[in-house]
Design a protein that fits this description.
Number of strands: 6
Structural class: alpha/beta
Strand order of the largest sheet: 3-2-4-1-5-6
Order of helices and strands: EHHEHEHHHEHEE
Shape: globular
Number of helices: 7
CATH superfamily: Phosphoglycerate mutase-like
Length: 205
C-alpha cells in the first residue's frame, strides 16, 4: 500500500496574530519574528526530501512558503482551497470589537454550531469540507511521495479533527503554533496523525 506523507505547517506569526484580530480571508504580513520562524522552518525542511510544495494563496501563508521555496528550490503551488475559514463580518476585528459591533452574531458563533454561517462568510463545516476535499486530492495525486503544505490554524484544526474523528462542535483541546510542523499520512482513504505541533526548530528563536 502506497502512503502519502503530508508535512502540514502553519504560517509564521503575523501582525494580526499579535493584535488578536480575526484574519480569515483578510490578511496581515508576517512580523519580523514570523519571518525568523519561517526561515528556521525552511532550514529544517531543507534537509527533508519532498516532491512538491503547496500553499494557501493568502499572503501570510504564501510569504512563508516562498521562504521555504528559497531554501529548498521547490516551486510554490498556491491554491485558494487551502485558505482559512471566511469569517465575513468578523474579519480584521478583535473579540471585543466583534462583541460590540455584532453581539448576536458573536453569541451564535460561540455556540460552536459547525453549520452556522457568519454573515458574509462561510460555516466551519463548509471550510473543513473545502480543505479536506483538496487535501484528499493532493494525497492521491502524490501517492507514495512526501509533500509540504503551508496553510493556516483553522485548516490544521479541521484536519486534526478529521484524522482523529473529533466532532467539529467539540471544544478545542489542542494548539497549533505558528510555523509548527505537523505530519500526517494518507492511505486507502484514511488519514493518520504522525507528528503534531513540533516546534523544536524554533528553540531559541
Amino acid at each position: 500500500m502506497n502512503r502519502t506523507d503530508l508535512i502540514v505547517v502553519r504560517h509564521g506569526q503575523t501582525t494580526w496574530n499579535i493584535e488578536k484580530r480575526w484574519q480569515g480571508h483578510f490578511d496581515s504580513p508576517l512580523t519580523p519574528q514570523g519571518e525568523r520562524q519561517a526561515h528556521l522552518l525552511a532550514a529544517r525542511l531543507k534537509h527533508r526530501r519532498f516532491s512538491a510544495l503547496y500553499s494557501s494563496d493568502l499572503g501570510r501563508a504564501y510569504q512563508t512558503a516562498r521562504i521555504i521555496s528559497d531554501a529548498t528550490g521547490h516551486s510554490v503551488v498556491a491554491d485558494a482551497r487551502l485558505r482559512e475559514r471566511n469569517l465575513g463580518i468578523f474579519q480584521a476585528l478583535t473579540d471585543e470589537e466583534i462583541r460590540t459591533a455584532y453581539p448576536e452574531e458573536y453569541e451564535r458563533h460561540r455556540l460552536r454550531d459547525p453549520d452556522y454561517i457568519v454573515p458574509g462568510g462561510e460555516s466551519l463545516r463548509q471550510q473543513v469540507e473545502r480543505n479536506i476535499s483538496f487535501l484528499d486530492q493532493l494525497a492521491k495525486n502524490h501517492s507514495g511521495q512526501c509533500i509540504v503544505v503551508v496553510t493556516h490554524g483553522g485548516v490544521l484544526n479541521g484536519l486534526f479533527r478529521h484524522a482523529l474523528f473529533i466532532p467539529l462542535e467539540a471544544p478545542r483541546r489542542f494548539g497549533f503554533p505558528n510555523s509548527s510542523l505537523n505530519i500526517f499520512t494518507y492511505g486507502d482513504g484514511e488519514w493518520m496523525l504522525q507528528t503534531w505541533g513540533d516546534t523544536s526548530h524554533l528553540d531559541g528563536s
